Amino acid sequence: MIKHISIFALFGMVLAGCAVDSASFEEVAEAEQAIGPECGTAAATVQFSSGVNYTPAEQAYTTPGCYKAHVVDITNLSSEFVGRGSLTAGGFYVSWADTVPNDKAGCEGSLMRALLFEKQSTGWKQLADVTKRGGYSPADDVWQAFCLPPKLSFTKEVDANGKLLWELKAGKTYRVAITGRNAANETRKVNLKSEKPI
């Protein structure tokens, strides 16, 4: 029998990827060893203007002052990458850019963490700190097993009462510190891209 991925299971996994991260304390602790607020004072790994599309060339990486992470600066963010859309908002999107694990432990052990900073007169102000992990759907008699690797985005943030905490704005300069990790706590490639509203 030919096995297929359930559209309902896939939709559920996509929604799970957008939910609040449920990584274990141990996994989050491992990510925190690699990246933190100190990345706001590190020298940038690479710099872009108006927008960004960046994937590290090497699987193993680190940055002085921001261990096992990349520090990406985006100056003068273009207005085409901000604002609401009918489906998705404009902003910075981080996706897995390495081999996708094909087993449950490897999938659920894959981890991505990113910090967003905004350039201000006194230095870099941290706006957000997000951690996500992969989601695994096991096989059954009909559907084949699959893994959705971690992904995350930065567009804006509101609190529980709907108050806007921050929002990406055109003309501002931003910094994104990013790391991807496998179940063995080794760095993995991730892609950072500025996307237009859809």
Task: Kindly describe this structure.
The chain has one domain. The chain has three helices and 14 strands. It has helices at residues 7-18, 25-34, 104-109; strands at 46-49, 53-54, 70-75, 91-96, 111-120, 123-133, 135-137, 146-148, 151-154, 156-158, 164-167, 174-181, 187-188, 190-195. The strands form four sheets. Strands 1, 3, 5, 6, 12 and 13 form a six-stranded mixed beta sheet that branches. Strands 2-14-4-9 form a four-stranded antiparallel beta sheet, with no helix packed on it. It is globular, with a radius of gyration of 17 Å. The protein starts with 6 loop residues before the first helix and ends with a strand.
Structural class comes to mainly beta
**What's the total number of strands?**
14
Distance between the termini: 38 Å
Biggest β-sheet strands, sense, barrel: 6 strands, mixed
How many distinct helices?
A: 3
The oligomeric status of these chains comes to single chain
Helical proportion, percent range: 10-25%
Estimate the global geometry from the Cα principal axes. globular
Uncertain spans, ≥5 residues at pLDDT below 50? 1-28
- The average pLDDT score comes to 86
Number of domains: 1
Strand fraction: 35-45%
